[in-house]
Amino acid sequence: MLRILTIVLPLALWVWAFIDCLTTPEEEVKHLPKVVWVIIVLLFPLVGSIAWLAAGKRRGVRTAPAGGHGAGGPAHDRRRDGRPLAPDDDPEFLASLKKHDNEHEDMLKQWEADLRRRENELRGKEDPDEERRA
């Protein structure tokens, strides 16, 4: 059991540090360029992972985007690129949902009309056959 932990824990730490290093925006990387940190974490798994976690990334307080209103204001609810954090807070996204709903409603109406037309055609073809049999 102890052998497994000595293999799994450093491997998990290395994978986590590598993924964290790759997904961290360039603005949050400290001391070295991001590419150098990725190489360090890859070449020196244990030491590089610990170094990345200790000194490679700005942690803690998130800064508001430029032109923001500070914590709790509109900038607090937005990403760095100015987009809202949640899709349901984005008026453009909500408008696109309404547009898609309308498109789907129109498509459904067309399908229903086509189905009615086909049913009427089939009934029209079946009715004369039934009359001939009788």
Automatic annotation (TrEMBL):
Key words of the record: Cell membrane, Membrane, Transmembrane, Transmembrane helix
The protein depicted here goes by the name PLD nuclease N-terminal domain-containing protein
Q: What is its main location?
A: membrane
How does this protein lie in the membrane? Multi-pass membrane protein
Q: From the UniProt entry, list the residue stretches annotated as the region Disordered.
A: 61-93
Segments crossing the lipid bilayer: 35-55
Organism of origin: Kitasatospora putterlickiae
Q: Where in the cell is it found?
A: Cell membrane
- Domain (Cardiolipin synthase N-terminal) spans 12-56
